[in-house]
């Protein structure tokens, strides 16, 4: 297959693969308006204020540009994709998603988002695919909405914008939703959110609570909790995708395995029990990683080496990290054409059934 989309760098028009970007953000304007109401209430979680207070309140050109782009599913987004040689985006509701909304509003926001995404996919099937949102605090309606989104609307997975008001997906309340995703054979995309409650304070006072490091700390913790809780042993068909090259976990695989084994042997923590395999092996058996926000060859090559090249796929992180040079940098990765076909296209097609 030869790509036909014209990008902004020489040679893109003749590449032997499609570029499928797999962590690309969207939010309906109505959901952004709900976020503004929470901010205006004066009673919002500090992490939410850190995140959406900046993007919805700052006059700086960068956050203003992000907010202008994030609610578009039409020509402006397609033009940005063309300008950077992105053939297809896998769209999903941006952080903090439904997680900060009350139960009724979360249900409404998920349905609205899924309908809008399905309409965009129907209008541009060669350019878009999408993941479903649900309201996580009501498992029965979440399961019904996920089923509708997948089986009626044709969406390709479930977006989970990390913790739900301080609770993580290893909590028993969320098991039925994850079980439904496994039964539907669709992946769960675990996406960062800001640290919850007072936990954010030491990060925020140093200016390190967002994408610079706080997101990795929060979402790396979340993914590791899912692993060490035995969630994947109880749901062997559950598939998870995580961005930013696994939020640092690949670098710590050996240490995590070593310390987990010592904790199991000592019985130090009630939460740490024996698993069917070493914690690192779940990164090779149940979890896929994307390069969103991490367009750095040494990190990409290391991650491919330790979890397997078939576990690492391309993502841009549009519109938060929308840099044409980063696409060119990943085009220049020192891999064969066959490896690049898989990296940019094949893995995404298999994982999301595109």
From TrEMBL:
Signal peptide: none annotated. Residues 70-354 form the Amidohydrolase-related domain. The keyword Lyase applies. InterPro entries: ACMSD, Amidohydro-rel, Metal_Hydrolase. Keywords: Lyase. It holds the Pfam family Amidohydro_2. This is Amidohydrolase family protein. It comes from Microbacterium terregens.
